[in-house]
Write the structure tokens for this entry.
Amino acid sequence: MNGDITIENTTYDELRIGQTARLTRTLLEQDIELFAILSGDVNPAHLDKAYAKDSAFGGIIGHGMWSGALISALLGTTLPGPGTIYLNQNLDFKKPVRPGEAITVSVTVREKREHKHVVIFDCTCTNALGETVVSGEAVVIAPTQKIRRERPELPDIQLNHHDRFRALIDTCENCPPSRTAIVHPVTPIAIKAALEAVEENLIIPVLIGPEARIRQAAEEAQIDISSYELLPTMHSHAAAEQAAHLAATGAVDIIMKGSLSTDELMAAIVPHSAGLRTERRISHAYVMDVPTYHKLLIITDAAINIAPSMDEKADICRNAIDLWRVITHADALPKVALLAATEKVKSDIQATIDAACLCKMADRGQIAHALLDGPLALDLAISQQAAQEKDIISSVAGDADIMLAPDIHSGNMIAKQLTFLGGANAAGIVLGARVPIILVSRADSLRTRLMSCALGLKMVQARKAGQVK
């Protein structure tokens, strides 16, 4: 190998008996997990700490073939290098390799055979104490032509260890399901979403909409809805109005969007005449499970309030704080990052002024049960490194639980970017009304749809217990 930029082989004619190459690699827990993903070897000796503790090894150990893979890497990239063809490998595993151990791998030319340019290598893996953990022999066909190539740049890989949505859904196991108005479920996916929530014991569905279209959708989805309550209406407008009426009279606890637009559904809920308004501004929140972030993240408002005023932002903030408290049951205060394009308060950027005022409102107790800071640019809200580089001293920066967007455009873009570019799951819910409103999308995964229903159920339980308004 020539430095870190290129890889270059050693041809058969260049190889000498006794010639050796080495590499050293430290086994990390992530290496064990990645090897398990690639190989399918999920032996609990490698992955289950409780099991491994009581095993003969007294703790987690790496896969034996991880060491074998390092031998392969050395032969394929260094000696002989590119152009090498593996013929045979035997290995003798002498000691386990544990996470954190540095292993030095060496391959040494023992024999050359002119016929077909076969070369036999002695292979050894040793730990930092000099103990041999693996030994063996490799038989390869060495390259005969010189090869020099740029070293390929491998992608960074981050493992998402926690299915945070599944964990939260499971906390609803002992909650009684809530009667839920499913508004205009006239497509197979809307019917399927209802069935999934029923199977998880999250909702008792009340299907509202054109009866013939609902039954046709159920037939196409191959789902039996004979046990579901069905309230026929002429069209989607009427279905939304009927759902709002049922919620206002206490006949249902949750409203769930079916196959109609969010605007159409909310048009039946927002007017004061619908009887669902509270003292709070109605707002939307995404609860997001972002693989690259260390905890659940709430983004608000990304769907309802287009250009909220400072007072409206205060309510949006209060709604999100209530949601965070309901889903976490944590004694600590949620950290709310008030987003803007800059962390500096500027008279010509209204979002920065609003953020500064909201922080003062929190200081005076007008926004309770949370730590607020802003204005903060997005990088400062989620990256402690960015905060350190800019000398921002803040209990919120780099560790936000909630991000309050300055308007619907920025909130929606952040959420969609995290979803489609960052691999995040986003469960949507509308807050501030007398009942929670579940927003599901055709693009949502099963887990995301169930998470949205779980959020609705937990809000219902919290309201009945007097924990939220």
